[in-house]
Design brief:
There is one protein chain. By secondary structure, the protein is an alpha+beta fold. The chain has a domain at 1-19 and 31-56 and 70-79. The chain is 14% helix and 34% strand. The chain is built from two helices and seven strands. It has helices spanning 45-48, 68-74, and strands spanning 5-10, 15-20, 25-29, 52-54, 57-59, 65-66, 76-77. The protein has a four-stranded antiparallel β-sheet, with helices on one face. The longest helix has 7 residues, at 68-74. The protein is globular.
Length: 79
Amino acid sequence: MNPRVKSVNTTQDYTLEIVFNNNERKMFDVKPYLNFGLFSELKDISLFKTAKAELGTVIWKNGLDICPDTLYIESKKLD
């Protein structure tokens, strides 16, 4: 099983700075998802900034989430 999300911060350019429970810091780019289905709602930057770490993944105020495995595998390592 891949590590799970411990904390998350949003940026103005639709990326997530994520700390996983193994203490790795990674950056996940949400922009490729913004033109698909319900994820288009996240184009509203005020909604995008509601991202929080919960249940090992990232969720938004409108109930959207992203699979924690996707977040880990598709993100780029920081540091």
